[in-house]
Every structure is written in structure tokens, then in C-alpha cells.
Design a protein that fits this description.
The protein is α+β, with helices and mostly antiparallel strands. It has 3 helices and 11 strands.
Length: 190
Amino acid sequence: MTNSARAAEEAAPPEDERRVPQTETDGATSTSYFTYYAKNIPHHSKRDKGGEDAWVASSNLLVVADGVGGWARHGVDSGLFSKQLVHNIKTIFDQNEAQELKNVLVDAVKANNQTGSSTAVLAKFDTSRENWIKTTNLGDSGYTILRPLGDGKFKQIFRSKEQQYSFNFPYQCGTGSELPYDAEDNAHAV
């Protein structure tokens, strides 16, 4: 699976609508759903352990965690961290779909007892506004929203921004990192 989650969008909202703070009612659910295909193809040298990345996909949540490979120099399999992270995210999210994704990510990191770190991107349907998705992105993982134009062509509507301290040093969550309160939240009409 690539580090980009893709969704088709009928119309792009004005820039100011992407930053509108939202509140959702606890326990609310969305009637919209994701249709997805996911496949993990780790580097051949990492296949025996399943790679360092992890993902979870369901009808109401998409998550990709890109484990930081630099941990291997310290004898740590960061794949264990990223796999536990997505498991925690799904478990916490399923308790209340109306939670803000950044809060879900922070709580999932707090609950992760594995050593390692990861970047992350999460997407869900907004339970307070029909035909909207909400996202949070941390680090250099990301997503692109595309609108189908017909004939197999697409128009890029939105591309998330990479968060990096410097080249090849992305924001990340996990061991030795701050909690991911700096993850970027967005909302998009779909």
C-alpha cells in the first residue's frame, strides 16, 4: 500500500471551508462509507516481518501508519509500533465515531507500549455534516483527493502538506517523540 489515501470528490470547497472547526455529537454515525482496496508490499528485505508500515481500512475509517525505518539501527522493529498504533486507532475510533481524529491518534499513541515511531494519516466521514470527510495527517505520509473527470482521468482537488523538521526528518509519533498534537486536521466536501 502506498502512503497516499485517495478519495474521489464531487466539488472542492473554498479554502476557508477546509479549516472550519467542527463539533460532532458523541455516538453519532455517518451513513456514508468508503470503498477501498489495500495491499501491503514491503521491501524484499523486510518481508519476513511484514514491513514497517501498517494500515486499517473499514467502511468508515482509513488509516496508514508509516513506520520509521531508522529504528532498525537500534535493533528495533518499528513495524511492531505502527501495527499496534493502527490497532489502537481502530479500537478507540470504534468506541465513538464522532471523536476528532487528532484525539484518536493522541490516545492511540498513549496506549501503544511498543518501541518505535511512525507517521500517520487518518480519514473518516464527518458525522455532523453529510458528504464531508475529516482527516488528520502527521509527518510525510499524506493523501490526495481526486475528482473523476471521465475517460479514466482525474483532477487533483487537494493534496495534504508534508510536515518535516528537515529533509528526511518528518514529524512522527512514538518513542522519544512528542504526542501528535501538531497533526494537521482538514475537512473536505465529497
